[in-house]
Amino acid sequence: MTVTLREAGEADYPAVAAVMSAANPRHAWTAETLAHETQGLLDHPLRPHLFQLLAEQGGQAVGAALTYQLPGMFHPDRYQAEVMVVPQAEGQGIGSMLADALEAHLESRGAREVLAGTYEDHPRGLAFLARRGFTEALRVFDNVLDLGEFDPAPWAEQARLPDGLRLLSLPELMAERGEDAAWRAYHAAYAEAREDVPRTGEATPLLYGVFRQREEHPGFLPGGVLLAVTDAGEVAALTELYGDAADPGRLNTGLTGTRRAWRRQGLGLALKLAALDLARQRGARSLWTGNASTNVPMLALNERLGFRPQLAWIEMRRGNLAGGGV
Q1: How far apart are CA 283 and CA 277, in angstroms?
Q2: Which domains does the chain have, with CATH numbers?
Q3: Cα(319)–Cα(106) distance, integer angstroms
Q4: What is the rounded distance in angstroms from the CA atom of residue 75 to the CA atom of residue 326?
Q5: I want to staple 68 with a disulfide (CB 3.0 to 4.6 A). Which of 38, 50, 262, 284 is the partner?
């Protein structure tokens, strides 16, 4: 049966999200989430590029491909690329058709570095990327905690913040300091902490206006933003819980981080424990977080708490702007 490719638009978000979820059920998408993420790209002050393709067979969506510039790690010559095929349509050359179309588009854009990836248990995907000149750049593990198996009792002492800090949720800080002041304190801590998160390129500064858009994310939980706050209203450390698009019994961790001046005082552990308590209160069955293989301190902390690593996502790269490009 003939496969046709066409550029995808807003009306295709349900079909694209369905393909993305079928290709990677560990991290499901909804049309609403895809619309939010896409609009965030289109509205970003850096004006990152976005190109989306849909593959159809017999009137059904069987594959999708995206290439875009990631605002959080922006360079005009760096692109992310994703090629996804629903499992029942694999092995028919659909992925190659989509990849060839992306390749032509990226070549027309003068791309010098392209990032793509797949899971370590997907040899077809790894071989596919290797044939196209990609090599491994970074491994990221999903770490999952079964909340039914977590016992908070042994952690009571570590759950306390040091003197001079209080545990507040974002809404509680807003009630004390006002909405804008609370968000700016949250942003200042987040922007500093994220600079030290392992990634394959240099982090782009996070603008406050862009940061505020996270409150519009379908999975954003204001009460799930937990902050270690000084008496002056400064946020010293933070952790975030997000709802999951496909599983109401699952919560996902955003960033857990501590500002440099406050590190090595147990703030990250205390906030993680507070998040676990909140997740249990909300009736969640599991908590997911993602950590790069090079983020040894956070991997060790999660292991102590009982998180178990899942299969690794292998981020692969072709070209390297840090090394002078292709």
Answers
A1: 10
A2: 3-111 (3.40.630.30), 143-313 (3.40.630.30)
A3: 13
A4: 14
A5: 50
Contacts of 247 (CB under 8 A, 6+ apart): 28
For 170-191, the pLDDT digits (tens) are: 999 999 999 999 999 999 999 9
Length of the chain: 326
Q: Is 260 helix (H, G, I), strand (E, B) or coil?
A: helix
- According to the model, what pLDDT value does residue 288 have? 96
Q: Which two tokens stand for residue 7?
A: 């550029």
Tokens of 301: 């902390």
List the one residue out of 106, 92, 104 whose CA is nearest residue 50. Answer: 106
pTM: 0.91
Residue 326 has pLDDT above 90, yes or no: no
Cα-flanking dihedrals φ and ψ of residue 222, to 5°?
-55, -40
Q: How far is CA 297 from CA 97, 121, 208, 227, 290, in A?
A: 41, 25, 28, 20, 13
